Amino acid sequence: MSASLGQDVEVSTDRPGGFDPPPYPYDRLAELSAVAATHPGGVVDLSVGTPGDPPPAVVVAAMADAGPAQGYPPSAGTVAMRTAFADWAARRLGASVDPETEVAACIGTKEFVAGVPHWLRLRDPSRDTVLYPEVSYPTYAMGATLAGCRAVPVPMRPDWSMDLDAIDPADADRAVCLWLNTPANPSGGLDDLVAAAGWGRGRGVPVLSDECYVEFTWDGPARTILHAGCDGVLAVHSLSKRSNLAGARVGAYAGDAELVGYLRKVRQHAGFMVPGPVQSAAVAAWGDDAHVDAQRDRYWRRLQRLVGILATVGVDAPLPRGAFYLWAAAPDADAWGTARMLAERLGIVVSPGEFYGPASLGWLRVAAVATDDALDLVASRAGL
Description:
three-stranded antiparallel beta sheet, 384 residues, Aspartate Aminotransferase, domain 1, alpha/beta, Aspartate Aminotransferase, domain 2
């Protein structure tokens, strides 16, 4: 037997009180990968957003210094790392944070997204609800489940921004946090982050803004919730996408000094530490903008190219407002059938929309992460 927890996660009740983790979404693509792999040249995986390009040389060189590996690294991040983040936020985003009290390190951002509802519920046990975008990265809902919280999705507007007016006041009263993701995975939508910060402050709900794609904002300037000030908010940032460092596992969160201080203490007790050499690499990555500008150009060209490739097989994929994914309606609303067709005809693997919540049925996500050589191969299969 199983019981629904939140909107889209099933928890086994065969063992009283037990938790049976659901299948990991991308593990369900093995059959499609096998189909795509039959093409000469093999499979081109556009399902997971794993960067296909190498990290910048300056970052690799910084990570090669063995000195920081000798002792335990500071859980909150070195002064150099926190300062590099604050300098980057000021330079690239026009946002001001104090590296001493308003910034801390995390081991990539996925672990932070998955873990923070638990820590916030410990802080205020009277609240038991995580609000998150109904079309979104699945870890927001899973983090609620792992914390024993209710996962309550917030409806989306037609432009894929969150409709904060649709939140039930009873759910807001119980919320440990509200998650936003701008630019959004998978849809590329952009939220009004200043309005979201005001919504949270008016209700005493921490607003957590996942901004890991912020450097890849195509529609207007990069936006951060820190533009609304730090009170009651956290901006969560990763170097996985910005600097092709997904394997290094390093990011940062910044904002409300009291909240950052609380999370620093909890995470220190739990032993969450970014390895010393990786913190040195983060300093180099946040200090260098040239490699990001080059990567922006690559992703925009690849997104445009994939739009043309998909059109040859009848898939209409509009360009996103941000991030490096195409979010396309599947013909006849048959996402799995279309994903299989793409594996058979083009040798690519894409993600069916159901990975991103029940409201995403009938959609496909295509990650523009393959190298130019790989896209040359896909284009040739499409007859281009």
